[in-house]
TrEMBL record:
This is Uncharacterized protein. The chain crosses the membrane at residues 246-265, 280-299. Keywords: Membrane, Transmembrane, Transmembrane helix. It comes from Lojkania enalia.
């Protein structure tokens, strides 16, 4: 079983040739060859989305009819060596699958590279600063693209390792085949093996290129993270400044609301005297505003003083409570020992009296 890349159009979005209109996902392909006890009849089962029925729009090498015809030709040439024929047919299918998987991975790498250009992100030829609003999304897309390349690398390594294991097993079976082959059959066998090796080499080349690209652009990852962290810090500073301004506005609106609430109390409650009018209302707002401003200005010192006073009261109180608890625990322990000894003495006296009574009888 080989893991490969697949792509399809994103649902609901018309495709216009843009790389962003496609999604990439992992796909599995299975090639199963079975034979009877004598080895003279084999059946091949292919489960894959990389092969097609006969179609003029698809590559001829990936159509099932073409693969079937090539497999029959192999079987006719190696009719007396069915084990070699089966391995070469497997080589044929696996080689075409390697080429298709390599093409899919190249397409995925091209799509990611078309979305973001790593060099263009840091080299602002248009004169834009790094803190411009339209530049930060480019850094986020760059970090996303780098993570996507890491995922491609991980899946491609699994694919190459799986195909390499299958190649080693097929090579061992071909070498263990019974009898010897003539020069013509040996050359034909080597031709099919070389055909597979060319497809597998294309896949290995994609793997090597992906590793090289990732090694070259990995240095950008720390830059992406540093810039994004700096941007988050700037946003936090801006939010803190906004909260600070809103706090100042609250300090101004709080006395007004409090004064309005006091003067809105009905006269039957006798909270505000009737002669108190607009002047008293304005002076009340000013007094509350000054008091609130002083409280806000000295709030840190007041809290520190309150904490110091609270600790000065709480520490002696805590010490007293701890001593009292220790005394209570010691008293309870002594009372338990006294109660046990008293109970033991009563039981001993009762046992002694019973013994004397039994002796008198």
């Amino acid at each position: 079983m080989e893991l490969g890349m697949g792509r399809h159009q994103r649902p609901g979005i018309p495709c216009s040739g843009c790389m962003l209109c496609q999604q990439f996902c992992l796909q599995a392909s299975s090639i199963i060859l079975t034979t009877n006890l004598f080895g003279d009849f084999s059946k091949c089962c292919i489960i894959s989305k990389h092969f097609y029925q006969s179609s003029a729009s698809e590559p001829a090498s990936l159509t099932l009819d073409s693969i079937g015809q090539d497999s029959r030709n192999i079987w006719l040439r190696f009719v007396h060596q069915p084990q070699t024929a089966r391995c070469l047919a497997f080589y044929l299918i696996l080689g075409q699958l390697c080429k298709e998987i390599a093409r899919e991975y190249r397409h995925a790498m091209k799509a990611i590279d078309s979305v973001v250009k790593f060099d263009d992100i840091f080299n602002h030829k248009d004169g834009k600063r790094i803190d411009d609003e339209d530049v930060m999304p480019r850094f986020k897309i760059g970090l996303w693209a780098l993570e996507s390349l890491f995922r491609l690398q991980k899946s491609l390594r699994v694919t190459v390792a799986s195909i390499r294991d299958a190649r080693d097993e097929l090579e061992a079976q071909i070498n263990e085949g019974p009898g010897t082959r003539g020069e013509a059959l040996e050359a034909l066998c080597q031709h099919y093996v070389d055909t597979f090796e060319s497809g597998f080499a294309a896949l290995v080349w994609v793997d090597t290129k992906l590793d090289t690209d990732i090694a070259l652009i990995t240095r950008y990852k720390e830059g992406f993270n540093a810039v994004l962290t700096l941007n988050d810090s700037r946003e936090s500073v801006k939010q803190n400044r906004t909260i600070q301004r809103l706090t100042y506005l609250t300090i101004g609106y709080l006395p007004m609301g409090l004064a309005a609430a006091i003067f809105a109390i009905p006269g039957e409650q006798h909270v505000v005297h009737e002669p108190m009018g607009r002047g008293w209302f304005i002076w009340c707002i000013l007094i509350l505003l000054v008091a609130t401003s002083l409280a806000a200005f000295f709030i840190e010192g007041l809290l520190h003083s309150f904490r110091r006073v609270f600790l000065s009261i709480w520490r002696p109180l805590k010490t007293t409570i701890n001593r009292l608890l220790r005394c209570l625990i010691a008293a309870w322990w002594l009372w338990t020992i006294y109660h046990k000894r008293r109970q033991y003495s009563k039981e001993s006296l009762l046992s002694k009296k019973r013994h004397e009574v039994s002796q008198g009888v």
